[in-house]
């Protein structure tokens, strides 16, 4: 019995020694057993799901080394992180595929004609993704593990919150991740601990105050970020982040704090040459004051919002710090600990007042105060007063070269300010169809300025009639008669510059792209919509040519014939539409050929009246009056449907909205997002 007790005692002692040796060995493991983040560990079970949204830069070019390194650094932090790339550029799909299933492409947001995404559309689209925390940041910024720990801390706060953080600019980042994305390596291939990496960069970094490089994050809570509407800011072009911070602070709906000292974000300086030489980024790190994009954002900031930008005192914003291994929320100006932090401080021994003013904590807080002075330029204290007028740095010729497709074809719309909402619905529909080769001719300065702020390729017509009330400029009015003549003049001007033109009124709804069919016609044909409403009989009867939708090629006969139309309209007291028919088909239809053609005798240009089942006007078959206009048109095979044959702008607007053939949210100034569009790597699926 005694021997048995001695044996059991020996086993117990041996077990204790083995456990002790195991713990000692664990502490003495080489660096190779200490990854950035232990994927699949039990610590992940309570980690909130984090979705990082970003717009790859350059917006219209191929992506490479810097973006890859940044995204790899994000994915390495936690398996709970997903990355969404907002992009419509073809290269984004193959770029995302290389990272696996946790990096996805989302093209269904609003972009300008230059490929720059809209900030308000990015924020709105983020809500469609299930996540605990939403993050919006630059594609060329490295994240380190304190990003996850800081967000975990924020996630446990009692209130809905919104945080922001400035990155630290580094001109030299001599580290890269291993193939598995687990360890940071030096240039010589040796592994480096995170603390050593931070210490190495500690003496060389400076605050990066570029708005496009800021990080913002918020929890998936019940409260909105701010009161009111988020304006259509151009992402990465200045003002938008600070505007949102200002509005969030002044609204008081969420707890707003600065996490710049708690989250290590390193912005990769564009001047650095990368070791493999694959990328030389064209992103502009700072938007120069006076650029039209910055001016546009400044205009929007002045027009929208309840707060005045210069009244926000960022020095008084609560700051998240990590001192002596604990997170603190402190107003460094007044040395006040935020009440939200009290629950966290209960783990500390002693009173709250003593613990956060301890010998280990005070240097951290004082260091934050000193470094805050270096961030003074980040807060835009000297706010720009936006220019009194907005003006594109693009001529008509340069816009044509930017927007025209490979066949040198553009789609032209002409609009005045009272039709701005219908213009935007038309634009949104073309964006949905991935049609980018369109131009807008603004009939007044209000439309020109509005179009610039909506990111449209717009130009103004200096010869457009002035002193016209656009509030009631509908069919049959004197205003309408004068305005329509601008369209044929502009088409003729563009044809002479060597570009084909599809002229489309903004009340024409596009079910699909008509250009493949229209481009298949012989070059000596002018394809036009018929305005005939009778279901049987000829569709080329007198004055049944609709000049609100036609396709003209840039060639001698077409230019000559359109020139005759413009000259005829200039001497007519009517709109341009009768001039089209009388000039091209002869008075009373004297040059009609069959039931759907005319031939202009001097130029021998053929005028082809398009099939009304494919291109119906507003009176044909009563399509607009059907219970389901979309279903009726799809059965018919419609390519477009014209919202004409109705008197009055408001009646026309009401008919189109009620029919469901409307793609623009007037209240948010955004295209209606396609709910049936699912996240995809390939835009065609």
TrEMBL record:
Keywords: Membrane, Transmembrane, Transmembrane helix. It comes from the Eukaryota. It comes from Durio zibethinus (Durian). Coiled coil: none annotated. GO terms for molecular function: glycosyltransferase activity. This is Beta-arabinofuranosyltransferase RAY1-like isoform X2. Pfam families: Nucleotid_trans. The gene is LOC111287298. The lineage of its organism: Eukaryota, Viridiplantae, Streptophyta, Embryophyta, Tracheophyta. The chain crosses the membrane at residues 6-25. Residues 435-655 form the Nucleotide-diphospho-sugar transferase domain.
């Amino acid at each position: 019995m005694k021997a048995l007790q001695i044996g059991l005692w020996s086993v117990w002692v041996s077990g204790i020694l083995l456990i002790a040796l195991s713990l000692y060995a664990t502490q003495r493991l080489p660096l190779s057993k200490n990854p950035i983040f232990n994927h699949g560990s039990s610590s992940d079970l309570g980690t909130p799901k984090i979705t990082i949204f970003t717009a790859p830069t350059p917006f219209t070019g191929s992506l490479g080394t810097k973006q890859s390194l940044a995204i790899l650094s994000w994915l390495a932090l936690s398996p709970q992180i997903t990355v969404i790339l907002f992009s419509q550029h073809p290269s984004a799909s193959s770029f995302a595929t290389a990272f696996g299933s946790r990096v996805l492409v989302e093209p269904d947001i609003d972009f300008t004609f230059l490929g720059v995404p809209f900030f308000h559309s990015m924020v709105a689209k983020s809500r469609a993704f299930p996540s605990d925390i939403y993050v919006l940041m630059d594609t060329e910024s490295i994240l380190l593990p304190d990003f996850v720990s800081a967000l975990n801390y924020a996630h446990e706060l009692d209130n809905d919150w919104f945080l922001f953080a400035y990155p630290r600019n580094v001109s030299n980042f001599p580290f890269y991740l291993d193939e598995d994305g687990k360890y940071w390596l030096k240039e010589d291939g040796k592994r480096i601990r995170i603390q050593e990496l931070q210490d190495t960069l500690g003496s060389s970094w400076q605050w990066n105050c570029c708005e496009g490089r800021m990080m913002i994050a918020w929890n998936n809570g019940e409260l909105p970020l701010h009161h009111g509407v988020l304006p259509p800011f151009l992402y990465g072009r200045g003002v938008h982040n600070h505007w949102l911070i200002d509005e969030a602070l002044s609204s008081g709906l969420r707890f707003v704090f600065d996490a710049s000292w708690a989250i290590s974000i390193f912005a990769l300086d564009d001047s650095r040459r990368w070791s493999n030489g694959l990328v030389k980024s064209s992103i502009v790190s700072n938007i120069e004051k006076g650029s039209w994009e910055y001016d546009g954002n400044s205009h929007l900031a002045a027009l929208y919002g309840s707060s005045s930008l210069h009244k926000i005192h960022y020095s008084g914003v609560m700051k998240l710090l990590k001192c002596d291994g604990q997170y603190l929320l402190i107003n460094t100006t007044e040395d006040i600990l935020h009440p939200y932090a009290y629950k966290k401080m209960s783990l500390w021994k002693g009173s709250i007042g003593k613990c956060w003013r301890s010998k280990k904590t005070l240097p951290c807080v004082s260091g934050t105060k000193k470094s805050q002075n270096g961030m003074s330029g980040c807060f835009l204290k000297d706010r720009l007063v936006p220019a009194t007028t907005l003006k594109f740095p693009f001529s008509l010729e340069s816009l044509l070269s930017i927007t025209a497709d490979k066949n040198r074809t553009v789609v032209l719309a002409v609009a005045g300010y009272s039709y701005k909402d219908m213009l935007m619905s038309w634009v949104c529909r073309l964006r949905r169809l991935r049609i980018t080769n369109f131009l807008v001719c603004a009939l007044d300065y209000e439309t020109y300025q509005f179009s610039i702020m909506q990111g449209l390729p717009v130009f103004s017509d200096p010869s457009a009639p002035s002193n016209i009330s656009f509030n009631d400029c509908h069919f049959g009015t004197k205003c309408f008669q004068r305005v329509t003549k601008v369209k044929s003049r502009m088409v003729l001007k563009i044809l002479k510059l060597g570009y084909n033109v599809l002229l489309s009124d903004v009340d024409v709804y596009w079910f699909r792209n008509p250009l493949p069919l229209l481009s298949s016609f012989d070059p000596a044909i002018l394809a036009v919509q018929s305005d005939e409403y009778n279901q049987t009989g000829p569709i080329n009867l007198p004055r049944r040519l609709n000049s609100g939708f036609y396709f003209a090629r840039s060639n001698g006969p077409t230019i000559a014939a359109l020139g005759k139309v413009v000259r005829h309209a200039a001497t007519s007291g009517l709109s341009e539409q009768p001039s089209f028919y009388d000039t091209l088909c002869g008075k009373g239809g004297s040059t009609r050929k069959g039931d759907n053609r005319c031939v202009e005798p001097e130029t021998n240009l053929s005028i082809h009246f398009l099939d009304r089942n494919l291109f119906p006007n507003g009176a044909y078959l009563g399509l607009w009056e059907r219970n389901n206009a979309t279903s009726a048109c799809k059965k018919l095979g419609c390519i477009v449907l014209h919202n004409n044959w109705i008197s009055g702008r408001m009646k026309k607007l009401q008919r189109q909205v009620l029919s469901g053939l409307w793609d623009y949210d007037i209240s948010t100034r955004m295209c209606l997002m396609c709910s049936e569009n699912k996240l995809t790597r390939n835009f065609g699926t």
